[in-house]
Structures are given as C-alpha cells and as structure tokens.
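Today's session is about reading a structure prediction critically. Students often jump straight to the picture, but the first step is always the sequence itself: look for stretches that repeat, for charged clusters, for runs of hydrophobic residues. Only then move on to the predicted structure, which in these notes is written as discrete structure tokens rather than atom positions. Here is the chain we will use throughout the hour.
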Amino acid sequence: MNIPLVVFCALTAVFAYPLGHGTAADIQVLAFANVLEQLESAFYTQALEQFNTSSFVAAGFASSQIPIQQIRTIASDENTHAITLQSAIHALGGQVISNCTFNFSSALTNVDRMFATARVVENVGVSAYLGALTSLADPALVAAAASILTVEARHQSILNLLSNATSIPQPFDVALTPGDVLAVADTFISGCKLGFSANPPLTVTNSGPLQAGTKLNFSSPALSQTTSANQVSCKIVTGGSNASFYQPMNDCMVPANVTGPMYVFITDDQTAVNSLSNMNGTTDSTMVVAGPALLFVNQPDLIGSLIRPGSNATGGTAGNHTKASTILPIVSTTSPVTGTTSAPSVATPSSGVFTTTISPAQASALLSSVGS
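Below is the predicted structure for this chain, in token form.
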C-alpha cells in the first residue's frame, strides 16, 4: 500500500510504539473514530463553502480572517486525522467505513448556528476519544488516540472563543460511550452501519437562557406517557466537578457553579437521587433511558469579546438532538429554544456604536492594561 509522505510522517509520529496486530475491538473503535473524523472534516469543509467574509463580519467578528483561518486549520487537522486513522485501520487488516452521508443543512443556516454546532461536534469528539482510551488494548493505539484527543481539545477551546464563551471552562472533560456519542451525533449521519447502537435521543425543550437553578424540561421518544417521572432521574455530568449530579427528572435543575458544557442523561438509577456520585468513567449504559443532551452554560470571555466585539453570544445554550427536530444546540438570552427554533439574533450596533479591527499588538496592550 502506498502511503502519502505526510501520512507516513504522521503515522510515525503518532505511533510511538510498534503497531501490533490489533484486536477486532481495537479496529471497531478506530473505525468508529474515523467516521467521527469524517463527520468533522465534512462539517468544516461545508461551513467554509457556505459562508463568506461578509457572513463573519455580519456575525460580529472584528475581522473575517480570524474565523476563516481557524476553521481552515481545524478542517485540515480533521482531514489529517481521518486519513491517518484510515491508514492504521488498513495496516491492522480492518475495513474503513466509507459509505456514510453527512447532512448539516439545518446547522449551516447562519454563522451563529454553525459555531454552536461546531462546539457540540468538538466537545462530543473529545468525549468520544476519552471514552475510547479504556477500550483499546494496543499501547500504540492508546498513544495515537490520546495524541488526537489533545488536538481536538485545542479545537474546542478555539471554538469557545469564536463563540465568545469561556475558552477553558472546566478543569476536566467527560468520557462518553459510542452509544452516548450517537445520541448526539447520529442525526447528522446516515447510510452506513457503525457497529454501535445509539442511545435514545433526548431533547431539552426549555425556552430561555440556562443558568444555575433553571429547571430543565425534556422530550424523548423513550419517555412515553406511561413513564412515571418518579421512576426515572436526571443525571448531570460536567467537567467542573469530580461528581455527577442526580435529581428527580421532574425537578431537574442546572447545578450552581457550572460553566461550559454539561451532559444530561435520563436514567432509571434511583439509588443516588438528590445526591452526588463519584464520576468514574462513562455512564452505565444499562441504566440510560435517554440521552445525553449536551447543554452549555456560557460566560463571556475577554479574548472572545476582542475577537467578536459585535457579538451577543452570551447566556446558556441547550442542545436539542433528535432526528425529528432542527439541530440547534444554542439558546441566547433573546431567543427561545425549541426543536424548531430560529438562531439567536446577532447584535446590531446602534448609531452611536462602532467597531474597529485592532492589531495583535493593540490587543496585547489592551489586555495588559486590563490586568494592571
């Protein structure tokens, strides 16, 4: 097999240990990861085709080249990840899943919706790799997956800033199983068999911003009218705590002191309701009734406000992930969130307000003055 020089170099760098034969389970995990990389690559490629410089200026960016440069870099990384994983799968004697179709039509209607979806895609990607590490038997594959994971985390931080949210909101990330990942991402994927079953999807139907104490309302095909709210609970997992939050489903609220992403499951585990449970790895799939849904509790970031001085991207955000509804994982302080909600409005400068592009040196000087 002829491997391009750039991929050969990537394989040499990534696989610090000699590549073994790989188990069937290893190959299945790599094949699943490769589909996620294909999804990410397709998403960013389509985003670059969909939006032009005026789109980003209208969305409040100080310069359109800031988001365009970052999206191009991320797209290139994702494509390199996909090619490298495909080469590794072939080297191990496996088959690449290459017949998937990715549909992002509902996620690319405007810049705000695109970045909101990008944050979901990257957070789920990080959590997918984190969850996969314990499933890999070959040390070389563990090292390879970890080396991709760290880059996905950098993408995550960049996208937070481009959304004017906290760049590094939590000290930890959350591990997900393939079923958890597909509960969020499966709506984008069709035409292929992935070897894993998706958890039933979960939609958060709140209208309004999310903040500490906000009561969450849910919808899911798994929550039938005969399902008693007393029989299930909501489990909230964040990277800002070393414990999971269990609450009754009909009284599930956003915990205090949470910033950034949080995964919400509906579970039939009643043993820990109204308590904290040590967050040890992924959620027990046998207990999951639906979800997770991915929610964001946003705080503005100083760097983000310099990048997007004309943005109004503050407040909490909710991820609605079902095939029957529009994928819009965002709600602003001015836009309600439903399965078919429109994107949050972009702040329009008033007659007495203007924005200007500043140089990196000017930005540095401004940050220094703030800190002094």
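Discussion point for the tutorial: The first strand starts at residue 101 and ends at 102.
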